[in-house]
Write a sequence for this structure.
């Protein structure tokens, strides 16, 4: 969930100074058009980790835009007036009218998350709150509210660095209290609860947007541009035959061209002889694990996604070589059949689910919905936006039923892909593996890269994380895949 | 929730025999068109109380339509195959392809409801299941499934009568087992859990349809016609620029012209001197209750709805006469102001909510959304269909915050209304109370009657029931209102 927000985005002062005047002018324009047309209102939720720049960003928005038409609200503990009414009452009243923007700083997410972190409520009670929130937000969206939800994030390391640097400066030392350090000790738990809450409430119509809070200039531009993009899109749609409920703001592209994939070190060292040794050991370990008595009440579902020529097939073969053929099936996913098209898009995967003691390996998977279908326009934005939550729900059900779900993204560089394509064209027995479609997909490299980052951010969850495999070196890649599967199985068996 | 299903609908044999051939022909036509166009699939859920005719109705549908394109599924306890996969797996696989109809008899509602009745799970766990169901159904609707949910109902008396009559006939005696009588003893609990589950899962896009199961002919025609209406509507929409998610089947009108309102005995006896005596006693009781120490942590919210000239104002005045003017406010609800129109439709009510120790009386209310706005077309069908669930959520929040919510529908007959209108026109000091709009509304009597019945069925819940007041006799009506308020307050105070 927080993958993209932890790669350390940065914006230089000169880039920032250059970008701000135009952004301010465009934000003011959009704000004015919103006010003129009065077709909808805008609610911006500001949540996240303390110290990640929530307050500063709200102040900046107020400075950049016309403050007469932005209402910022901060909510502390309920007053007596408030506590004698429904707990949502203070938020209900803070909703802006059509034409205006409301910024809610501390809102309906704050108390449930904090209470769960402090273990004052159970997980099922948290889920009840979140369900209520989902129903409420769904109503807002239908009542012409453009809902934009920002979560300000800092990595644990980033949080520590921030506190230490404040303490080291005599001018800011007073800002760091014991409460801050106490909160720091709760970081892991807070992150876990937040991840759960964000996953349950990131819907197609009101998805969460995670803000990397580590660099003040980056986060300011990120929030400003995202707000602008969402406003612009909705203003355009309002003019047309606008379909209610398809109001997700566009997911913003990375501003500094850095993303989760292109900051990976794709070339990892591993020589052939080390590889052979590790391969044998890991295959033996996997063979034993899939024959383990503990596996009789678990199933294993492997998902392989990756760029063309990233080595999915090779990695899968190294896996199946270790398993009894009666135990596993490999399901290659291509274009859907007519029968599959006549059912919900998940049906083709539902039908293939393994029972206990069995392994199913999907060579491409349900993630096609948010990859190829998104990039090629085979489904609408509303369809792929809702798919993130639907896929998370689906994987929840798998895990609840005892499945171990391991998802791999095999990442290679653009150069490495080119080299592999060319090698395939030259080797007669591999020529069938390279088609015109592969070359066409390659032209959409950047679109795919963006779709992959969004996918990992939105579907790497505490119960079903993605494993991204640096795959320029096939040896390294195959070993990482095998080792991950063994480790996940061992964890599931409680070893 | 079950109000309309307990008034004892009946269809005579001759009416039935006359209606069936045309209905069958139309159902076959619609089924054929569905098959030809393959734009969507139909999932019919059959749930409800045993003995209310679920099985018979499914058999009949199969008989009436082309059974090659209907797939009926019954689900018992999960097999080993099934229990090693997600608990939804067997339902996922049963979904029909586009162009076909699937009838699911025993489905994703059965286990959660039964487990909650047997107290094997807690209410918060039931709610988690229901949330999951809502998310799943919402996905189905977006994946081109027309979802029709039937709940077969029998009153407790009806259930008992049915078991006794089966026992009394030597030919059917064998059909009644101890399990049936055991189930009968659980009737109240089952009804309570079912009501909760139906309320949480009756959404704008997939509302529950309650079937009065007491008369076999009536329920067969009801289900057949509802299915036909839903199919026809969706087939029409599929041709047009169809908006996903606005797929609620039309709520069916009563087939036998009987409804919850027109079967009430509106003339209730109460003479003037009895009235005066009761009035004084009840006003005294109410005065004490609103000054009771227990009221310092409760608030009271009264909702008055009713036909024009039904006596809302008079009933409200008899109430306020008993209360301290600093404690209550009467909020008359007319056309919304510009300020109110710029916010979600509930905002004008949110702003008026009382704190503890206070009373707010709404003379007309948020139910305008599903009454006047529905009948006059001020909002779309999708808007008023979703409002039932939104209003239930809203009232949930009120009750959670300590409010006692009492809702009155004041019902008068059409003749009585005419008499009152004419009387108002003749009395100079009352002439202002009668306008052209009143006469226009009167022309839409039947539309309003239908809207009121739907409203009561869909928003009379275990936590916030409607009180329908037979109001042809004003004395009786005012006393019933006062008494109900006193009783509800006393219940809230635990007396």
């Amino acid at each position: 969930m927080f993958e993209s927000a932890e790669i350390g985005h940065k914006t230089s002062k000169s880039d920032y100074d250059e970008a701000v005047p135009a952004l301010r002018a465009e934000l003011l324009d959009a704000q004015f058009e919103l006010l003129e047309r009065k077709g909808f209102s805008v609610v911006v939720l500001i949540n996240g980790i303390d110290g990640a720049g929530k307050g500063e960003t709200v102040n900046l928005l107020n400075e950049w835009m016309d403050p007469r038409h932005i209402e910022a609200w901060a909510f502390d503990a309920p007053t007596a007036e408030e506590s004698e009414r429904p707990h949502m009452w203070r938020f209900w009243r803070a909703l802006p009218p059509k034409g205006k923007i409301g910024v809610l700083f501390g809102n309906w997410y704050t108390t449930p998350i904090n209470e769960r972190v402090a273990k004052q409520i159970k997980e099922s009670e948290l889920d009840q709150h979140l369900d209520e929130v989902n129903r409420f937000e769904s109503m807002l969206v239908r009542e012409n509210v453009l809902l934009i939800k920002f979560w300000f994030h800092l990595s644990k390391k980033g949080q520590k660095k921030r506190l230490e640097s404040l303490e080291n400066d005599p001018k800011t030392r007073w800002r760091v209290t014991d409460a801050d350090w106490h909160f720091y000790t709760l970081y892991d738990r807070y992150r876990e609860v937040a991840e759960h809450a964000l996953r349950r409430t990131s819907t197609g119509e009101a998805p969460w947007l995670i803000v990397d809070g580590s660099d003040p200039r980056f986060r300011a531009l990120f929030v400003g541009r995202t707000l602008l993009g969402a406003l612009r899109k909705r203003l355009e749609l309002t003019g047309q035959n606008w379909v209610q409920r398809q109001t997700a703001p566009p997911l913003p592209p990375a501003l500094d061209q850095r993303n989760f994939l292109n900051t990976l070190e794709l070339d990892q060292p591993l020589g052939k002889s080390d590889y052979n040794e590790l391969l044998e050991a890991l295959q033996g370990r996997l063979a034993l694990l899939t024959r383990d008595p503990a596996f009789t009440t678990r199933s294993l579902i492997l998902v392989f996604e990756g760029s063309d020529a990233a080595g999915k097939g090779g990695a899968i073969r190294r896996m199946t070589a270790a398993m009894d053929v009666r135990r596993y099936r490999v399901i290659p996913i291509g274009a859907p059949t007519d029968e599959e098209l006549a059912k919900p898009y998940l049906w083709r995967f539902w039908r293939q689910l393994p029972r206990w003691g069995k392994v199913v390996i999907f060579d491409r998977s349900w993630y096609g919905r948010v990859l190829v279908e998104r990039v090629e326009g085979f489904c609408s934005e509303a369809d792929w936006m809702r798919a993130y939550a639907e896929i998370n729900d689906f994987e929840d059900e798998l895990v609840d039923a005892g499945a171990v779900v391991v998802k791999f993204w095999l990442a290679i560089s653009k150069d490495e892909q080119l080299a592999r394509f060319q090698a395939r064209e030259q080797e007669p027995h591999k020529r069938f593996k390279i088609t015109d479609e592969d070359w066409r997909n390659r032209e959409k490299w950047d679109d795919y890269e963006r779709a992959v980052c969004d996918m990992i951010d939105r579907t790497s969850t505490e119960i079903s994380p993605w494993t991204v495999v640096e795959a320029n070196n096939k040896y390294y890649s195959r070993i990482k895949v095998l080792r991950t599967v063994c480790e996940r199985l061992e964890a599931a068996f409680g070893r």
